[in-house]
Amino acid sequence: MTQPIIALKVDVDTYVGTRDGVPRLLEILERAGIRATFFFSMGPDNSGKAIRRIFTRKGFLKKMLRTRAPSMYGIKTLLYGTLLPPPMIAESFPEILRRTEQMGHEVGIHCWDHVKWHDLLPWMPKRTTAMELGQAFSLFGEIFGHRARSTAAPGWTVTADSLEIQDALRLDYCSDARGRAPFYPVLDGRRFATLQVPTTWPTMDEILGENGITAETINDYYFTLVRPGLNVHTIHAEMEGKAMATAFVDLLKRLKARGMRFITLAEAAEEFGGNATDAPLSMGELPGRAGLVALQG
Ligand SMILES: [Zn+2]
After folding, report:
1. Rounded to the nearest whole angstrom, what is the distance from the C-alpha of residue 226 to the centroid of ligand 1?
2. Whole-prediction pTM value?
3. What is the secondary structure of 25-81 as a DSSP string?
């Protein structure tokens, strides 16, 4: 039986998550001797505009209250882009981004504007989508001195346009979906050329408060999900790097005690990409998450 392997995918969504959550995660990962893959939001933090989801997405308000979002993100973050001007994320903390790579982690692009992509992608003209990625790529190149080789879509939101643009960027892989194993996506009758390495575990905010799962028992639940081969776990700088850091440290300790091997997503793409087959990709519902996410069919 193949030994379980874990790839940690770190989504960095906000200004505060980059400033406080990333350094905290770097410290935690260094102590554990684990390398992960960080996907950065490069442009403005418009988190406050996400409030409009209360009116457009069934279950959003319930989720905000269940996960105690105001205390998790801080009141200021919830006002960025509405009452407060949106701060520029990567431009404000280039040294934190560079330090992430210097410490041995893989770095990639989450997006330019997280809230815009997550909420508006299906209605965006193709050139706007291309500009969102283009701006992120250009600043990423300036900060790191090399081009980005992978992206991970905000909120697991994709369209045929976004996949087509990602193909044109000749990336090593993308991590846009939820699913079982690396695959080549087929959407709207088209097969795309960029390998997808999907997230296989639910995120903390999806399961916390569901079925009686608490911060104390969440790692027991994660342990029931471990399976042979590749497991991809998405964490958030805003959660595991802040209020949920203690639970995350405990999870790493327990996974390591079980002898599990940790790899980056780029290494996962290399190691498991060879077995990838074509699979349908569609936007669908996932328990614990408001709105639709890209699902491997
Ligand atoms: Zn995100």
Report:
1. 23
2. 0.93
3. HHHHHHHHT---EEEEE-SB--GGGGGGHHHHSTTHHHHHHHTTHHHHH-TTGGGBT
